[in-house]
Every structure is written in structure tokens, then in C-alpha cells.
Amino acid sequence: MLQGIASKVRVTQRASPEIVRAVILALCEDRFLSLKELSELLDRKTEALRASYVTPMLREGLLTLKYPDTPSHPDQEYKTHGNQVRGIDVK
Description:
Elements: H1 2-10, H2 17-27, E1 33-34, H3 35-42, H4 46-59, E2 63-65, E3 77-80
Antiparallel strand pairs: 1-3, 2-3
């Protein structure tokens, strides 16, 4: 199921930032995922994913941390904050 959601980004190295963000939100909708898991699902480098998407999305309040009191927690994971996926077709 997660691979199906991620396929829109995984199959191309030129996915638009809007699509990548939408797919991250959809992947994290009902579950916490680590940066490593997101990286593997999307076939993207972890540091590029963190810098370009995860950190900005955290700042915007689109994602929430599993360990909010320890942002650099070694087992940190991310989940969509609230109902952010409304109307996004990533399938």
C-alpha cells in the first residue's frame, strides 16, 4: 500500500515539489514514518529529503514529530499533522 502511494515520486527523479509534498503527507497520514523509511519509499537521499521537504513541512505545521521534545531523537518519526491530505490525489 505504501509503495503504491510512493510510486508517483519513486518512478521519476523529476517529480514536482508539490507532488513530493503531497505524497509525503499521504504516506504519513495515519502512521509515523522515519526519514529512512520515507527515503526508501520515495527513492530519495535522506539528507535532501530532510532539507527540501521534511524540515520545511515541520516548520509549516504540516508534519508532527513523534518525539517533539527531542527533535534530534535517533528514532525520530514524522506523521501528518491534522487533516492535511484533503483532496490530494496521489494514487
